[in-house]
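Sequence, please.
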């Protein structure tokens, strides 16, 4: 069959007919089974055809048979480059099946259906998107450390990096831009790759309430894609939190400059951004730390940042914090300071509060000036109200402002004898320092040498001395 008209001359019904003809020409049954039967997952460009499939296996098989597929496409849709992308599915296959069962029950009973829908509304859907090489590594670390209540998703242009990721879900972006490779530090290429996969990203995060974006700033993909994904997430209605690391000094000035550029953009698009400075890790880390250990430590801090917020929602407490509390404090605030402290002993509440109210790894490092603050206290059954009050008073005073505090408390029997405090402080304002009275100010001493000389003579002698100073020494 001869090459057909360009996309601008084809309507949806024509594309549907041509796609059915293309499938009919295929004699490879496995390949035919891998391809979508509906043309709604087939998008024509000027010289490309993008085909969306619903699993990693299907995507890989289609690429193995790419020459055959392009030949069939050429006969029906015209000579075009074929791009295979995976149709993002937020839920695992067993979860999708469960959803189908739930929907079938709704038709049987409206009351039962409404109860199911109510339960689904009460459940906060949380996703952690690791963007770029550093972000993918951070998500792998979160999976290893057992992060609870969140879907872990890896996004990158580099197919090889994604192939070794342990994330629940993976999405290769910009296949037509980078051909499955990295961006090589090219921010423009990363932006184009993200724009090309905008539909897949939007589908991936659809229905999510809270989205964390984890990345190591300074590279090409993470630095350029993360601010754009934050904007897509906000447009989808999700509360969007960036948890990012700034490069080590040994990574070079060019990478540092790219990171600063990316951080500025991310703060403009995400609801809130928590920035962790890797060089400060080295100041607090043991001496002789290897380069690999340094990066692993940075990943662990990213994990703590995500866990510090997600645990507030996912773990039930005696004083509960729900998603509405988190949103009220974090939405559209720009910058946050997150701190965690743990202590035991008689002064455990005050010690944990002091540790939580300052974090040398984060931008700012202190909660001073915060106007909004989330505080969560977790302890064993021996935790007392007096301890909680002590900690809250210390943290409130540390802000030096009239701070709005949202409070939660959780009892965890595993923490017998210990107390954990997590705080997230936002909406910072400049705090005017009150001038301190200097009681050591020097006072004019009264000479006791000439006290016997009458006052008028002492004054006259003083005036003569001053006159000599003005005229200078006599010749």
């Amino acid at each position: 069959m001869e090459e057909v008209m360009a996309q601008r001359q084809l309507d949806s019904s024509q594309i549907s007919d041509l796609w059915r003809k293309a499938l009919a020409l295929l004699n490879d049954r496995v390949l035919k089974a891998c391809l979508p039967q509906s043309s709604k997952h087939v998008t024509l460009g000027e010289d490309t055809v993008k085909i969306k499939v619903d699993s990693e296996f299907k995507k890989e098989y289609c690429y193995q048979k790419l020459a055959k597929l392009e030949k069939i496409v050429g006969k029906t849709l015209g000579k075009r480059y074929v791009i295979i992308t995976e149709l993002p599915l937020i839920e695992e296959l067993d979860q999708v099946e469960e959803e189908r069962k739930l929907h079938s029950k709704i038709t049987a009973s409206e009351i039962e259906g409404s109860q199911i829908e109510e339960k689904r509304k009460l459940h906060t859907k949380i996703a952690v998107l690791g963007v770029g090489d550093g972000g993918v590594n951070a998500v792998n670390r979160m999976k290893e450390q057992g992060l609870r209540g969140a879907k872990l998703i890896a996004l990158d242009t580099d197919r090889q990096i994604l192939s070794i990721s342990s994330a629940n879900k993976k999405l290769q972006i910009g296949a037509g831009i980078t051909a499955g490779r990295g961006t090589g530090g090219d921010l423009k290429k990363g932006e184009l790759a993200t724009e090309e996969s905008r539909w897949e990203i939007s589908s991936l995060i659809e229905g999510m309430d809270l989205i964390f974006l984890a990345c190591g700033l300074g590279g090409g993909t993470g630095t350029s894609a993360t601010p754009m994904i934050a904007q897509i997430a906000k447009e989808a209605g999700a509360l969007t939190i960036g948890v990012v690391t700034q490069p080590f000094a040994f990574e070079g000035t060019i990478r540092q400059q790219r990171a600063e550029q990316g951080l500025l953009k991310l703060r403009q698009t995400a609801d809130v951004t928590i920035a962790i400075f890797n060089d400060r890790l080295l100041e607090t880390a043991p001496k002789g730390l290897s380069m690999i250990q340094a990066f692993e430590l940075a990943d662990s801090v990213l994990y703590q940042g995500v866990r510090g917020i997600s645990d507030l929602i996912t773990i039930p407490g005696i004083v509960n914090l729900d998603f509405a509390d988190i949103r009220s404090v974090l939405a559209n605030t720009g910058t946050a300071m997150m701190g965690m402290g743990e202590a035991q002993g008689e002064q455990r509440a005050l010690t944990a509060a002091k540790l939580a109210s300052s974090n040398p790894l984060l931008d700012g490092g202190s909660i001073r000036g915060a106007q909004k603050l989330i505080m969560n206290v977790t302890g064993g059954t021996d935790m007392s109200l007096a301890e909680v009050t002590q900690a809250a008073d210390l943290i409130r005073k540390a802000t030096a402002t009239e701070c709005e505090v949202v409070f939660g408390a959780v009892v965890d029997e595993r923490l017998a004898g210990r107390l954990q405090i997590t705080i997230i402080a936002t909406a910072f304002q400049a705090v005017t320092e009150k001038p301190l009275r200097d009681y050591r100010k020097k006072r004019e001493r009264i000479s006791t040498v000439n006290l016997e000389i009458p006052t008028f003579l002492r004054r006259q002698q003083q005036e003569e001395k001053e006159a000599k100073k003005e005229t200078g020494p006599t010749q």
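Confidence is low (pLDDT under 50) at residues 1-8, 89-121, 439-444.
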